[in-house]
Write a structure and sequence with these properties.
The chain has 105 residues and is an alpha+beta fold. The chain has one domain (2-104): Translation Initiation Factor IF3, CATH 3.30.110. The chain has helices at 31-43, 48-71, and strands spanning 2-3, 16-28, 76-87, 93-104. The protein has a four-stranded mixed sheet with strand order 1-3-4-2. The termini are close together. This is UPF0145 protein FRF71_04390. Belongs to the UPF0145 family.
Length: 105
């Protein structure tokens, strides 16, 4: 499955537009990960644990979007947009959503 942020796939004209597809993942923050991330903020450096969670959530959202596209008969998703949103009373959850247009190329 081809997934691209561009509106077309170079050299592969769109034969059919199938509709908008999305994939959404909500992950909760872990208390211990938050504690270690706070310590890293004080001493400097990157928070690898948060980066791992974010990467996994992004891949899951993209995979879900691709599954919906395949279910509609698509072999590509164009115009993909990734959005990140903090949710929950204390910002304790993160939502990653992937949206695009399922097409046949």
């Amino acid at each position: 499955m081809i997934v691209t942020t561009t509106p077309t796939v170079e050299g592969r004209p769109v034969q059919q537009y199938l509709g908008v597809v999305t994939g959404e993942v909500i992950v909760g923050a872990n208390m211990f990960r938050d504690l270690f991330a706070s310590i890293r903020d004080i001493v400097g450096g990157r928070s690898g644990s948060y980066e791992d969670v974010l990467a996994r959530a992004r891949m899951q959202a993209l995979d879900e979007m691709k599954q919906f596209a395949a279910g509609m008969g698509g072999n590509a998703v164009v115009g993909v947009d990734l959005d990140y949103e903090v949710l929950g009373a204390n910002g304790s959850m993160l939502m990653v959503s992937a949206t695009g247009t399922a097409v046949v190329v």
